[in-house]
Model the fold of this input.
Amino acid sequence: MGIEEHLGYNVLTTTLEKLVDWGRKNSLWPATFGLACCAIEMICTAANRWDIARFGMEAFRASPRQADVIIIAGTVVKKMMPAIQRVYDQMSEPKWVIAMGACATSGGIFDSYAVVQGIDKYLPVDVYVPGCPPRPEGLLYGILKLHELILKDPFLTQRYKESLQARREVAA
Amino acid sequence: MSDEPDPNHDTHRNHAAERGPSHPSTHGVLRVLVELDGELILSADPDIGYLHRGIEKMCEYRTYHKCLPLMNRVDYLAGEVNNFGFCLAVEKLLGVEVPKRAQYIRVLIVELTRIASHLF
Amino acid sequence: MKQAVALLEEKFPDEVVEVVEFRGDTTIEVKPERIVEIMTALKDGHDTGFKYLSMIAGMDYSPASPRFGVVYNLYSHKHHSRITVKTRLADDLAPAIDSVSKVWSTAIWHEREAYDMMGIRFNGHPDLRRILMPGDWVGHPQRKDYPLRGE
Done:
């Protein structure tokens, strides 16, 4: 079909958007944000049995400026919230958030005065991984769902549509 | 203008730094406000409370059995050790006699979780 | 433990309110006015030697009055014995007691927690500020009239 028939088997054609999305999802670097019990499961996911390095994510960057995804693992306490907000703001675009565990999703079993009832009150969450704590396979499934989300990310087509819209509005 | 340094001039200004609650050296949250002189730490003031979840107050609203999952998460590295302490306290209050087999099983589980806690 | 009771009854007979022995654990209730002297006597006494302070807890006994209390758990390495010392504070609205941080310096953090959670002021404490809640929190969370989900 078209040019690909003539090119042969050693040339692939794709769109820039798909290529960049593929590159982004294959090397998502998480920012270390283990707070409580789910952090232990996250450490186990990074260990040898449920290897997270197969997905290119073994480099847990301490500096948020070098990280793509922040995995909020553990109970979010109101005293800790400004620190989380600062770390999230320091991450550079594109960035994603995984809320791991029941406490980050909705406060978990801790329905008390000191706990934020869900991190999505403050940060835009992309994937929720339920469990208390979720097994490493559960976290890996959540990460794979995030990969699917990133593969479908229409950031270039979105920008093209927005600029087209702006040009139409100017012309009209 | 002599070239000798003025002995009254403070050549070191102590550097106040903050090792924030989220840091890469260990899991868990602890904030330490340190005052540094080069690499020497002059004073360190820890700041805690970043994982205070109100477990003590929540236990007031629950029966003894329902407190056990909360106790598990107090020290999440060695979960059953906390449960063991809680159960011992409750059994002492109620005067409950625990059978021998249960005592042996409890000690086995607690020692296994102690090992798990020391591995992290 | 018996030596501790005997020591207190000998040196501070007016301060001891009640001695309770329950399933091998001794609890002594004392009046709060001379708490520092009582603690120093327990720590330095030859037969007692309670050099380790395990815990200080603020207590809220509401609706009973007097409402607030402080509980000290002491341990003696020499004699392998534990003891609990309790006090009830007279003032319900502004509870205050002397700080034992000169006797055991670990009391500094324990008393900060009792202040943070219950609102009990400790006279003579070197650094009384909130420890578990954020610095600008209003209210004392573990009081019985504080709602579980916060205000």
Observations:
- The mean pLDDT of chain C is 89.
- Residues 2-90 of chain C form a domain with the Beta Polymerase; domain 2 fold (CATH 3.30.460.80).
- Strands of chain C lie at 16-22, 25-30, 52-60, 68-76, 81-88, 96-98, 121-123.
